Amino acid sequence: MEILKLDVAKFPEIEDTIELTNPKRNDEVEDCDDQQKQQLATQEDEEEDELRKLLLSDIGELPISPPSATQVNFVSYFITDFTKSGHDQYIYRHANGYVKDSFKDEGGITSVDFNVGKSDRSVLKVSGKRKKNALRSESNTALCKVSTAKDTYIVRCCVKGSLLEVNERLIKQPELLNSTADREGYIAIIMPRPADWTKNKESLITLEEYKEKKEMSL
Predict the structure, then answer these.
(1) CA-only gyration radius of the chain, Å
(2) Which of 10, 26, 36, 132 has a Cα at 20 to 30 A from 202?
(3) Residue spans of alpha helices (H) in the chain
(4) 157-195 core/surface letters (b: 16 or more CB in 10 A; e: else)
(5) Domains of the chain in sequence order
(6) Residue 94 backbone dihedrals phi, psi, to 5 degrees
(7) Tens digit of pLDDT for each residue in 51-109?
């Protein structure tokens, strides 16, 4: 019987056929595919966990109550012993640059009078984009006189800028200064120029600094 010998070098397609039909080689390919699939699945799970952490906060890290609109949209600044000892005032600055003046006294507010200085602030009427009729004020310009059960205070602007409006509701509802000083009980809205604000900010302190200062004085 004559035996035929095939030269693989002359017929390379035969080697490919042998490799594809080699059971051992096919098992190795399947094992490799399974490992890659497992690694890919693990990577996808890790990415999903990271995304979940970014989108969903840890319940333990959430505050007991959500922040108010004032806390979200405004930054509070304080000025201590303004014009006299123990006379502290604070302002809220919005991202648009506007400033809200506020005042609070533990003794209870009994009245608010905007008729101070040379004019009655409550009759101020500002109009138009150019804020026509706005009162140009300095940091020590008087805004109103606040009377409490124990004392009387002159509340001042605290910042240099254009006085746009005062809160006339305080004339009939002075108690708003105590109950909602950061919202309906604000005193006035002032628009400082950027350069003026930068200079005024040097004399102001943040809420954290104010708390630290008060704790040190106790």
Answers:
(1) 36
(2) 132
(3) 12-20, 23-55, 69-73, 169-172, 176-179, 194-200, 207-217
(4) bbbbbbbbbbbeebeebbebbbeebbeebbbbbbbbeee
(5) 69-216 (2.40.50.100)
(6) -85, 160
(7) 776 666 566 666 666 666 666 677 888 888 877 777 788 888 887 777 777 666 666 78
> What are 146's two structure tokens?
């606040």
- In single-letter form, the type of residue at position 131 comes to K
Under 8 Å between Cβ of 156 and 89:
yes
Do residues 213 and 204 touch, judged by C-beta distance below 8 A?
A: no
Angle at 102 between CA 101 and CA 106, to 5 degrees: 160
Give bridge partners of residue 137 from the DSSP assignment.
161
* pLDDT at residue 105, rounded to an integer: 61
**CA angle 162-164-167, nearest 5°?**
135
Name the nearest CA neighbour of 97 among 183, 201, 203, 186.
201
Q: Which residue has the tokens 């930068």?
A: 198
Residue 83: count of CB within 10 angstroms of its CB: 13
d(CA 194, CA 161): 10
Sequence letter at residue 25: R
